[in-house]
Amino acid sequence: MDLTEKTLSSKEIFNGRILHITHDEVELSDGSRSMREVARHPGGVCVAAIDKDNNLLFVRQFRYPYGEVVLELPAGKLEKGSTPLENGKRELLEETGAVGYSYISLGQVYPTPGYTDEIIHLYACRVKEQGESHPDKGEFLNVEKIPFLKAAEMVLNNQVFDAKTQIAVLKVAALLQSGQI
Questions:
Q1: Where are the alpha helices (DSSP H) in the chain?
Q2: At what angle do helices 148-156 and 163-177 cross, to 10 degrees?
Q3: Distance separating alpha carbons of residues 146 and 172, to the nearest angstrom
Q4: Which of 15, 80, 119, 125 is 20 to 30 A from 87 via CA?
């Protein structure tokens, strides 16, 4: 069975700094019609940076939509003109002051495929050196180092809520334990 939906029309609802929202009419695979609201997003990147002691570098920052401070791996929005890896290196340096090496791709994730086209690129790296963080204007965060096994335990114990962080932490834990990184 063909599951593809065909866009019949698209109306812009909102065009903001990060999100572009459309209201689309689609034709379903059975020929019927339906409506879709889509949040268009430029995509993101997340970096699991591992120091010489096998700690992962995390940041804590206030996330307005949830009204709370959230524990996350360094991450950010993709900027035009740069590759996801270049964006990841930039975000790692800005948010944690760390310079990484031996980057490997951990793949991509679709964080919420029901209403957004956002794709988050995941990477792991080793930390070469770490200095002071230099977050963007208006970005306030605290940097923390957490042993990778403890971080994986925190994910499994529902102490880390951010989806991209959960996925990257569990992938890194599996790769480290198997000696692949």
A1: 84-96, 148-156, 163-177
A2: 130
A3: 13
A4: 15
Task: Tally the C-alpha atoms within 13 A of residue 87's C-alpha that lie toward its C-beta.
Answer: 18
The tokens describing 149, both together, are: 């096994």
* Cα separation values, 36 from 18, 27, 29, 30, Å: 19, 10, 14, 16
Token match 């090496």: residue? 101
Query: Cα angle vertex 168, ends 164, 48, to 5°?
Result: 105
Judged by DSSP in three states, 11 sits in strand
> Do residues 10 and 35 make contact, with C-beta atoms less than 8 angstroms apart?
no
In this prediction the pTM is: 0.94
- Cα–Cα distance measured from residue 164 to residue 122, given in angstroms and rounded to the nearest whole number: 8
Report pLDDT digits (tens) over 127-176.
999 988 888 888 899 999 999 999 999 999 999 999 999 999 999 999 98
Q: Which one, of 37, 47, 50, lies nearest residue 115 by Cα?
A: 37
One-letter amino acid for residue 115 of the chain: Y
Q: Convert the pLDDT of each residue in 105-134 to its tens digit.
A: 999 999 999 999 999 999 999 999 998 888
Q: Phi and psi at residue 149, in whole multiples of 5°?
A: -65, -40
Joined together, the tokens standing for residue 169 give 């932490």
Distance in angstroms (rounded) separating the CA atoms of residues 126 and 89: 12
